[in-house]
Amino acid sequence: MDTQRCGSVLISNLATSLKPRYHFAALEKTYYERLPYRNHVVLQENAQHVSRFIALANVGNTSKKKYLYAFNILPMRSMDPAELVKQPQDVTENPYQKSGKEAHKPKMLSGAEEEPACQFFFDLSKQHGKKRPSDGKGGQHSQLKQPKKIHQPTGPCWFCLSSPDVEKHLVVSIGTHCYLALAKGGLSNDHVLILPIGHYQSVVELSSEAMEEIDKYKSALKKFFRSKGKRYVLFERNYRSQHLQLQVIPVPLNCCATEDIKESFILQAQEQEIELLEIPEHSDIKQIAQPGTPYFYVELDTGEKLFHRIKKKFPLQFGREVLASEAILNVPGRADWQQCTASREEAEAAAKAFREDFQPFDFSELQ
Questions:
Q1: What are phi and psi for residue 33, nearest 5 degrees?
Q2: E strand or H helix at 358, and its extent?
Q3: 221, 247 in Cβ contact below 8 A?
Q4: Which of 71, 82, 231, 301 could disulfide-link 290, Cβ–Cβ 3.0 to 4.6 Å?
Q5: pLDDT category, 365, cuts 50, 70, 90?
Q6: In angstroms, what CA-CA distances link 179 with 29, 66, 185, 218, 244?
Q7: Considering only CA atoms, which of 319, 161, 324, 134 is closest in space to residue 234?
Q8: First to last CA, the chain
Q9: Packed helices 344-358 and 208-227: angle between N→C axes, nearest 10 degrees
Q10: How far apart are CA 226 and CA 220, in angstroms?
Q11: Do 9 and 113 meet the contact criterion of CB atoms below 8 Å apart?
């Protein structure tokens, strides 16, 4: 096909923006089925469904080219998210994506190239008939709206902020979507947890707003610990746990370098036959693990990340054991949190001291 003659810049931009699961065309009166293409950049954007482009010939054509296409399609809202974004083996890159500055620069159409919008778009500037009152008794918009899924714990949860089981005396900061608390039986007096206020099992399930607030806590903690001559190590174990806990453990700068910490994790993982892989710094865990996938994840304050997809068993104290080892904090007796819990009075005093110390860095106090 001569794309200069038959292509449409507007339709190409529309397909790029809408990311249809199927795109049919018939103007060229020929049959063509393209290989499915991706709607995301691998390791840079969240995984999305693929698109399939099918061109069909005109009905009853003398060349007997295909003009019918039979297929089954389930609405997105009825599909499992992991199944929806599953990539077929023959998937290709997005044909509309361009590299470099051209990708971000919208193409300006000349008067000769520009196509009348009324051919493809419903004109929202005009009133077409009477608007149905939003009484929730029907209409297109009421059918499309889906109630937001509310995550509920399967039993008593120690970390949901609204739960009677949460140990509120350990809380040191509360944001809009997340909160900060001292770890019970921490590796040190300033070992903290970043937790969602609502019930979420892992980072993969969090909303973009909650993730944004987690990033704010990470940034605040990085500045806070650096002011104390420390760097932090963060890890998450999404395995045999029902509420997301991001463990943040500070390590004195004069204790060891970031490279030493990374090497300790990798070496101890190899000793226990755990495949701990380094992933790109700017990649998102949501691109690597689907909701419900067990995993272990380490993040250093330099942005370096290590990831292990848990397939069978996994040592529950692995993260603590590595950090408690002689190579890093040298407190092997504190590898198991149950062996180093403090009294309520001691915990309250430690939380109060941390809260006051952290206050100048706490964005939730500055809002």
A1: -120, 115
A2: helix 344-358
A3: no
A4: 82
A5: confident
A6: 59, 59, 18, 12, 12
A7: 319
A8: 57
A9: 90
A10: 10
A11: yes
Tens digits of residue pLDDT in 191-215: 999 999 999 999 999 999 999 999 9
Phi, psi dihedral angles at 304 (to 5 degrees): -65, 140
Q: Could you count the other beta carbons within 10 Å of the beta carbon of residue 262?
A: 19
Tokens standing for residue 292? 């419900």
Over residues 307-322, mean pLDDT: 94
> What's the token pair of residue 306?
């290590």
H-run or E-run covering 10:
helix 9-18
Summarised one tens digit per residue, pLDDT across range 81-127 is 888 888 988 888 888 875 434 444 444 444 444 444 333 333 434 44
Three-state secondary-structure class, residue 158 = coil
Query: What tokens appear for 239 in the block?
Result: 């395995």
For residue 251, the one-letter residue type is V
Token pair listed for 258:
């970031």
Structure tokens at 13: 């931009």
Is 169 strand, coil or helix?
Answer: helix
Average pLDDT, the chain: 84
Show the tokens assigned to 27.
Answer: 């103007």
Given a contact cutoff of 8 angstroms between Cβ atoms, the answer to whether 221 and 295 are in contact is no
d(CA 164, CA 121): 53
- Type of residue at 307: F
Largest CA distance in the chain: 88
Kindly give, in sequence order, each residue whose CB lies less than 8 Å from that of residue 183, ignoring residues fewer than 6 positions away.
170, 191, 192, 193, 247, 337
